[in-house]
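Task 17 of the worksheet. Students: predict the tertiary structure of the chain below and write it out as structure tokens. Keep your answer in the requested format; marks are given for formatting as well as content.
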Amino acid sequence: MCVFYYVRKKTLDDYKKLAPELPSNTCPYIDFIKEILEEVKDDSCSVLEKEKIELALNSLEYVRLSNEYLRQGSHYWFHKFKNIFK
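Model answer:
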């Protein structure tokens, strides 16, 4: 005796419900932190402190660029995955 079970195919909406929440755009937060650091840098008399702040500013730009690449990659893979359901 053979028993067949109906297995419902998952839809794109099913996968969306299981997906983790995406963070919002972080650029405004990065800009805000950079503004604060620039103010501290301008008020500082220490060369070492200014260099550390410059390093922090450069690191924030790296984070901004990395976040942009993650958004682009997410967009690319979502559309590739979405095309499977067309």
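Marker's comment: The longest helix spans residues 47-84. The two ends are 36 Å apart (CA to CA).
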